[in-house]
Amino acid sequence: MVTLKDYQGGETAWCPGCGNFGILVAVKKALVELGISPHEVLMVSGIGQSSKLPHYMKCNLFNGLHGRTLPVATAAKLVNHRLHVFAVGGDGDGYGEGGNHLIHTIRRNIGVKYLVHNNQIYGLTKGQASPTSDLGFVTKSTPRGVVSTPLNPISLALALGASFVARSFSGDVPHLVQMIKEAVNHRGFALIDILQPCVTFNHLNTYSWYKERVYKMGEEEGYDATERLAAFKKAQEWGERIPIGVFYKEERPAFEELFPAIEDMPLVNQKIEPKQFERLIKEFM
Ligand SMILES: Cc1ncc(C[n+]2csc(CCOP(=O)(O)OP(=O)(O)O)c2C)c(N)n1
Ligand code: SF4
Ligand SMILES: [Mg+2]
């Protein structure tokens, strides 16, 4: 039986009270509740405080370049689609530097589960505005306040045809556990935007700021997560009230299911004859 102890990783270097701790606990809990063992999991991350999460777990991990989390996760999933592949990173990593990759990963609907620690700031580099920083927010890089329109990751994903789009809050671990479990059980790409207070550099979007605003969509009567247009409308809510939960879910084949060559066996387990390589090299070089 898998236990939380099996996922116990190294010592953390996050600030006391950081919202990342709630995410770390939730990821481990969700995996244990799903009965998934560490050797069946690959966590891919980029650069940022959030991207350190895989270091604090015990499982397979690949820590790559800033903003390049999704291409690495995509390749890993295609090579071994039986692995549970997670991409983990920050709002800067995923919505800024890696924004182009997000667009095309969503289009592919590959079975990678993407956890974005959205603290609305660049934490690791000590407090510059990120693509999701609220208008008027004063940071080191925006001394007169943010003037660019904040990116809405939920609307973006919905507009691109994403098959699973959710938001959670690191201050509500049971909710986040539920979202991660639903994402893992989903066929295809899943985006979970996770509101994550940065207690050191973001003194606007604090625990209490979020707590006063977040509400669970499931509890609201009549919300149907299978209607993209309704989800799009819901995704516009930000400010006084912030919805969390699954905005949209749709069942359709994942990218890795559409390749006959890996239908019976993951690529990593297939024996490739040297002659096949020679033929390929001759054709393309
Ligand atoms: C190619 C590249 N560009 C920029 C940087 C500098 N850099 C490192 S982390 C980071 C942003 C971190 O913010 P986020 O992704 O939101 O992570 P957080 O620390 O907030 O969790 C930046 C700009 C880098 N390391 N590599
Ligand atoms: S700087 Fe912010 S995001 Fe980074 S560890 Fe500290 S509280 Fe967390
Ligand atoms: Mg950030």
Topology:
Layout: H1 20-33, E1 41-45, E2 60-63, H2 69-79, E3 84-90, H3 91-97, H4 99-108, E4 113-118, E5 121-122, E6 128-129, H5 153-159, E7 164-169, H6 173-185, E8 190-195, H7 207-213, E9 214-216, H8 228-235, E10 242-249, H9 274-284
Parallel strand pairs: 1-2, 1-3, 3-4, 4-8, 7-8, 9-10
Antiparallel strand pairs: 5-6, 7-10
Helix pairs in contact: 1-6, 3-4, 5-8
Bound molecules: thiamine diphosphate (TPP), iron/sulfur cluster (SF4) and magnesium ion.
Brief rundown of the structure:
The chain has 285 residues and is α/β, with parallel strands linked by helices. 31% of the residues lie in helices and 17% in strands.
Order of helices and strands: HEEHEHHEEEHEHEHEHEH
Number of helices: 9
- For the termini, the CA-CA separation is 50 Å
Q: Largest beta sheet, briefly?
A: 8 strands, mixed
Number of domains: 1
Low confidence ranges: none
Structural class: alpha/beta
Could you explain the architecture of this structure?
The protein is α/β, with parallel strands linked by helices and 285 residues long. The chain has one domain (4-256): Thiamin diphosphate (ThDP)-binding fold, Pyr/PP domains (Rossmann fold, 3-Layer(aba) Sandwich), CATH 3.40.50. The chain is 31% helix and 17% strand. The chain has nine helices and ten strands. It has helices at 20-33, 69-79, 91-97, 99-108, 153-159, 173-185, 207-213, 228-235, 274-284; strands at 41-45, 60-63, 84-90, 113-118, 121-122, 128-129, 164-169, 190-195, 214-216, 242-249. The strands form two sheets. It has an eight-stranded mixed beta sheet with strand order 2-1-3-4-8-7-10-9, sandwiched between helices. Strands 5-6 form a two-stranded antiparallel ribbon. A hairpin with a 5-residue loop joins strand 5 and strand 6. The longest helix has 14 residues, at 20-33. It is globular, with a radius of gyration of 19 Å. The mean pLDDT is 96. The structure holds thiamine diphosphate, iron/sulfur cluster and magnesium ion. Iron/sulfur cluster binds next to loops.
